[in-house]
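Subject — a protein and its fold
Fields — amino acid sequence, structure tokens
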Amino acid sequence: MRVLLTALLLLLGATPAYAGPGQEPIGGGSVLFSPTARCTAAFAARDAMGQDHLVAGPGCGSAGTHLFSGDTVLVGPVTATQTNGFITVVRVTNTPAWTVVPWIPVGATQHVISGATETPIGGSVCLLDRSLGQRCGFITAKNLTINYADGAITGVTRTNICMQQQSTAIAFVSGAQAQGVPIGGSSCSTTGVSYFLPIRPILAANGLTVLA
């Protein structure tokens, strides 16, 4: 019933006003969806006014799309997209339902984020994945241009970590430092390679700091 009501409200241009059963944590690793979109949050962030946001990868939809949690509880609207839709910023407006947290669930543990210091080429980096957990390797190149069907993506970082499924990849980190949002890579049955868009330029472009 909630899903049908959600779709109707979105078609009418209204904002659903669901409240969750009490505040639940939301942040990196949270799956977000609308009737026509689905994506995964990479990191939690905050603006200068103290408003919480989620920085997510592709698939969230265009600006103005209202996104929900897996149990159809409203999270908030998409406020910005960039890099041909590979990056999405979502404002968390349903504060009675959600508390935004600076950690990412990886299996039974919580990977805490405390900053966004950028790791250089040759530095260690890890991919947090909802299905495969944490897998680590090294940054092999930066500022690459990758050609996709929707156009060229610039400023891309490459690693030697394979990416089994983009849909389960959450975020790249170096220890407690946020590094970037996954945008693609090779299957783990082939030579390991994956790509991400660095988080620092994304934060700067949207007036955000990573939640820590």
Observations:
- Residues 2-101+206-210 form a domain with the Thrombin, subunit H fold (CATH 2.40.10.10).
- Residues 1-20 have pLDDT under 50 and may be disordered.
- The radius of gyration is 17 Å.
- The CA atoms of residues 121 and 139 lie 5 Å apart.
